[in-house]
Specification:
Elements: H1 3-34, H2 40-109, H3 115-124, H4 131-136, H5 144-166, H6 175-189, H7 192-212
Helix pairs in contact: 1-2, 2-3, 2-6, 2-7, 3-5, 5-6, 5-7
């Protein structure tokens, strides 16, 4: 959902509140003209009715305005968080792509047994954001927060699987076992680099929007489907 969509939703609610309030007030006045109150008690009842209707729609208006303010604040925090993650995600994308390429090559041409332990160390050093960062990214378009959560899950799973392989140094002395383990490692890692690349590109566009005062949907979509908002 884009910033413009958020604004349109807020304006739609505001319009509904104003139209509803005007309709209700007009209805009360129309009834009052048809049946004009004669006693002070009747006038007091009408005044109470009008005041109650006004209070209800005033409360709705204030709630709508507060909701729009919270949405704007959440969106600002999300964009700032995305900007702060851009470089880290780009580094993680490059590292995971390099590790994947090594295991893909090792599957065919073999390689040193220590590569598994080295891959675990390199993957553990990557920083792709915290749980708080993913929560902050939720207001952004293209499900950026959910993609980052998926990348985090794949990274964690890859580390666990590679740790299990690295914990068998005797078995890894066998070339056929090394190649088979490398094949499994490449299979586990294959989805991580493109996912990190996609998220990194989206965060970069959002970072550009901050410095260029333009919302990301005005830039070319990194996925190529032209759908910044959903």
């Amino acid at each position: 959902m884009t910033k413009k969509t958020h604004d349109r939703q807020g304006e739609s609610w505001l319009d509904m509140v104003l139209v509803g309030g005007g309709f209700a007030l007009g209805l009360v006045l129309a009834v009052a003209l048809v049946h004009t109150p004669g006693t002070s008690e009747e006038w007091a009842s009408w005044a109470t009715a009008v005041g109650t209707i006004g209070a209800v729609f005033a409360a709705l208006y204030l709630a709508t305005r507060e909701d729009r303010r919270r949405r704007r604040e959440a969106l600002a925090v999300a964009k700032l968080t995305a900007s702060s993650l851009t470089f880290r995600l780009a580094i993680a994308n490059g590292e995971t792509q390099n590790i994947y390429n090594q295991f893909s090559s090792m599957e065919r041409n073999d390689g040193p047994p220590g590569r598994f332990e080295e891959a675990v160390r390199r993957l553990r050093s990557l920083d792709i954001g915290s749980h708080e960062d993913r929560i902050a990214l939720i207001p952004l378009p293209n499900r950026c927060a959910y993609k980052l959560a998926g990348a985090h899950d794949r990274l964690h799973s890859s580390i666990k699987i590679l740790e299990g392989m690295a914990a068998q140094p005797v078995a890894l002395k066998d070339e056929s076992i090394r190649k088979e383990s490398a094949k499994r490692a490449a299979f586990v890692l294959q989805e991580l680099p493109p996912l990190l690349h996609q998220i990194s590109q989206q965060c970069q566009l959002i970072s550009m929007s901050l410095t260029n005062h333009r919302w990301p949907h005005e830039f070319k979509n990194p996925v190529g489907d032209g759908s910044w908002g959903e």
